Each structure stands twice: as structure tokens, then as C-alpha cells.
Amino acid sequence: MAILGGNMNKLQITSILIVALTILSAFYFYPLLPDKMASHWNFSGHVDGYSDKNLGAFFIPILSIALLVLFSIMPKLDPLKKNYASFSKDYDGLVVMLLGFLAYVYFLTLAYALGYSIDMTRFMAPALGALFYYMGIVLSRAKQNWFVGIRTPWTLSSELVWDKTHAICSKLFKVAGIVSLLGVFMPILLLSSVAILLATAILSIVYSYVEFQKEVKNKMAPKNPGQKKRTEKRNRKSK
Length: 239
Prior knowledge:
This protein is mainly alpha-helical. The protein is 68% helix and 5% strand.
């Protein structure tokens, strides 16, 4: 990602436009917002948290700027930076999805503060579904790195374990995305999709550990016992 220098592609330009839109919206709608804004909803779609006007109006735009800068410099800081080249478009697409998701949440919050009636659970379902599903795509293509993907001690120690773990977890993320999309019709499914992701996090730790141990044992075991015996027999005869 070359936002902080170099040529930019369409995805990187899109990320900048998304952030710029949230900033402009903050200043435009600020005079119209109430002193207290709803800032958090439970899974039933009811407000259970509020923030003052300044925080409600400017927190996500400032967070978006910080994330844009962070995602721009992460590949440059990564010891495995060379691996980003193989999934650079997916990486830039992920940045667009994350910033787009934040912008979507921000505009829903503004709309609610301005008096529009919004079922937040149903509105969040498709956005989370799209985000989870795309993350599944990225996981299936990401190569070893220190910032994006399933980063356990064992995936970072073995490229094979990394690939195997990501192949499984990418499918589970896609399942979570589909389940979340269906939350538009059955809001309870939104909670189910989160449960799937929590299970995926636990599975990734256990699975990567088991696969790493298998790889270690395979490396220690003789590759061809029969050949080893024949070699030892020839050595004894030569003596």
C-alpha cells in the first residue's frame, strides 16, 4: 500500500475518499447533532450506550485517519514484507472494506442521532456479512506476514502450517459471513456468526499447534527407512 508515497491504485484512492467523506460529514452534520448521541447498541437493537457530541461526531473520522496511516506503513515494517506482493490487491481491498465498514457504522450513527428510526441489528447484518466473507477471501490468499492473518507461533514458524491453517479458517470466515447476511431476516443469526468467529479463533490455535507438531515429527523421522537399511548394509560390507 503506497498511500504515504509512490503511485496509488484505485483501491488506495478509494480508501482515501472514504476517509475524506467521513471527515467532511463530521463537520457538515456537527451543528445538527444533539449534545448526547447513541454510540452503542445491544444485539436486540436497543441503545445501551451514549457519548457526547464531540466524541460521537469525530471519533470514527479520526480513527479512520489513524487506520489509513497504519495500514499504509505496516507492510513496510513487516520483516516478511516481500510476501505482501503476492496478495497486495487483497490487502488494499481489505483496507477499503474495513474503512468502508467504519464509514457505514458512522453514517448509521449520524442518521439515528438526526432522528431516523433504524433497526441497527438488521442494518449491521449485511455490512458484517460482507466484511467477514471478504476476510475469508483474504485469508485464503495471504502469505506469511506479521500483521494480516492467523498469527500464532506455529503459523509464523512454518509456511506449510500457515497455508493449512488459513485454508480452513478462510472457509469458516466465509460461513460466518453468509450466516451474518441472513441476519437481515433473522437477527439472532448475527450473534451466531460472532460465535462462529470465536470458535474459529480457538480452532486456529489448536489446529496450527497440532499441524506444527506433525511437521516436526515428519522432519525427525527417516524419510525412507528401507533405503536407510540398505545403505547401512552396504556400509557394513565395505568394511
